Amino acid sequence: MAIPFRQKTRRKLVGHQLLYAISVFASLGVFLFGYDQGVMSGVITGPHFLKFFDNPDAINVGTMVAVLEIGAFVTSIGAGRIGDLIGRRGTLFSGAVVFTIGGAIQAFTIGFRTMVLGRLISGFGVGLLSTIVPIYQSEISPPKHRGALACAEFTVNIVGYSVSVWTDYFCSFIDSNLSWRIPLFIQCVVGALLAAGSLLMPESPRWLIDTNKDEQGMEVIADLHGGDVHGTLAKAEFQEIKDKVLTERALGEGRSYKTMWKKYQRRVLLAMSSQAFAQLVIISYYAPRVFEEAGWLGRQAILMTGVNSIVYILSTFPPWYLVDRWGRRPILLSGAVVMSFALGFTGYFIYLDKSWTPDAVVLTVIIFNAAFGYSWGPIPWLYPPEILPLTFRVKGVSLSTATNWAFNWIVGQMTPYLQDMITWRLYFMHAFFCLCSFVLVYPETKGVPLEEMDYIFGEGAVFTFLSLPKLY
Fold first, then answer.
1. 405 Rama sector, left if φ>0, alpha if ψ -120 to 50, beta otherwise
2. Residue 174 in contact with residue 182, Cβ under 8 Å?
3. By C-alpha distance, which of 53, 82, 77, 46 is closest to 398?
4. Which of 13, 104, 137, 180 could serve as a FRET partner for 273 with CA atoms 20 to 30 Å apart?
5. What does the pLDDT look like over 222-279, one tens digit per residue?
6. Among residues 128, 120, 90, which one has the least CA distance to residue 102?
7. How far apart are the C-alpha atoms of 272 and 382, rounded to whole Å?
8. CB 347, CB 425: distance < 8 Å
């Protein structure tokens, strides 16, 4: 078939400059939900916050923190249809606007109910953003650099988390309700920047081609390849995507969730399980409470969380280099081992309750977060968009992201209660989930073009338990 194109590009940025510009703006989305998840961990320990909300009990605190995950769960499921209907860029814009509205309600809250409402609305925005940003990034990234760009995106997520923690720390010196309103208001600023930036970004070429906007799709592909509309690589990529779209249509199976589940059950379950385990092992959202439990109190706990977040950021840099060289599986396996040991020692040191316990717990939590930031933090966001085909990518990723937020809600809601009830034993529970994640086998996807993922998925059992896959 003839490949449609204009005679010249209409964009000033092309090639790697365009790719990196897109990545920076899209990363504001992951910065937002990193910031939003982290900001509450420091806010809820502040004296002015506690006084304003009349010293809320563990259930009310858990509700304020975890209700965001309920909203995110709802819209992450809906994003499966929204992303196909209005495109990746339209979904990104919508998520940013909704998030900003929710942030404003939180910052100007008048009580517990409005705070919960604001968190819920922000969650609606986060659900859209957390589903569509990884898809958008994967669909505009070249295969050899797809893993690195996705891991860089996760780094921005942790930067958002770190910025929120340090904002909480410095605002804790403010002797008024501004100590917690300012951190919450900053969400609105970043959300507005993302909404504005999304209007300047190109649409995903794969979505354009899938919706018969071939000429526009070819334009974006050409721009990503340097702006040469006659380039061999650009034409070849367009043809590969178009052929895949036509092949899927020729099968006549439709695009329902039922069809996806019937045809790609293994891939969907792998995508969902990766997100589930990423949440079952994490302890970052309540890090200040972890440090308080170990003996650090008040502002000191937030300070230790801030120090921990710096190491957390640094740990996300090695995957930039390793993920497209080592592959996804070795990183997941090695991360699971280190995390399980770090969590086990965290619980053990809290149990001993010695004079050196606070320092020891800081060390083990830092080791845990470093291992998580290097492995189970970034890879579960990269993996689902990679392994799912274009026709079901948004729907499949919406289910995996919904799984993330469902388990995120469970962890967010239950952690304060479990910290009070089973204390140090909680960390052995998280360590057990790390070991479970170790024995779950994920096929390697490094360097494989999105349209060729079919070749690495054969027929067979969904899970292979109690076997140790080779690290190559």
1. alpha
2. yes
3. 77
4. 137
5. 888 887 777 788 888 888 888 888 887 777 667 788 888 888 888 999 899 989 888 8
6. 120
7. 12
8. yes
pLDDT-based confidence at residue 443 (cuts at 50, 70, 90): confident
Average pLDDT of the residues in 82-108: 92
Phi and psi at residue 44, to the nearest 5°: -70, -10
Residue entry with tokens 């388990």: 407
In this structure, what DSSP letter does residue 456 have?
G
What mean pLDDT do residues 444-460 have? 75
**CA–centroid distance for 243 within its chain:** 31
Asked if 396 contacts 135 with a C-beta cutoff of 8 angstroms, the reply is no
- Give exposure, 423-447, as e/b (b: 16+ Cβ within 10 Å): ebebbbebbebbebbbebbbbbbbe
Nearest to 258 by CA among 80, 91, 460: 80
Structure tokens at 87: 């495109």
What would the pLDDT profile of 191-221 be if each residue is shown by its tens digit? Answer: 999 999 888 889 999 899 989 999 999 989 8
Compute the distance between CA of residue 149 and CA of residue 24 in angstroms, rounded to an integer.
Answer: 10
State the pTM of this model: 0.78
Residue 467 has pLDDT above 50, yes or no: no
Number of CB atoms found within 10 A of residue 185's CB? 15
pLDDT at 125: 93
- Summary mean pLDDT of the chain: 83
Please state the three-class secondary structure of 145-206 as a single string: HHHHHHHHHHHHHHHHHHHHHHHHHHHCCCCCCHHHHHHHHHHHHHHHHHHHHHCCCCCCHH
Q: What is the pLDDT of residue 298?
A: 65
Say how far apart CA 229 and CA 234 lie, in whole Å: 7
Integer Cα distance of 35 and 50 in angstroms: 21
Tell me whether residue 101 is exposed, middle or buried, using C-beta atoms within 10 angstroms of its C-beta: 0 to 12, 13 to 18, 19 or more. Answer: middle
Q: How many residues does the chain have?
A: 472
Owner of token pair 């689902």: 384
Residue 352 has pLDDT above 60, yes or no: yes
Asked if pLDDT for residue 131 goes beyond 90, the answer is no
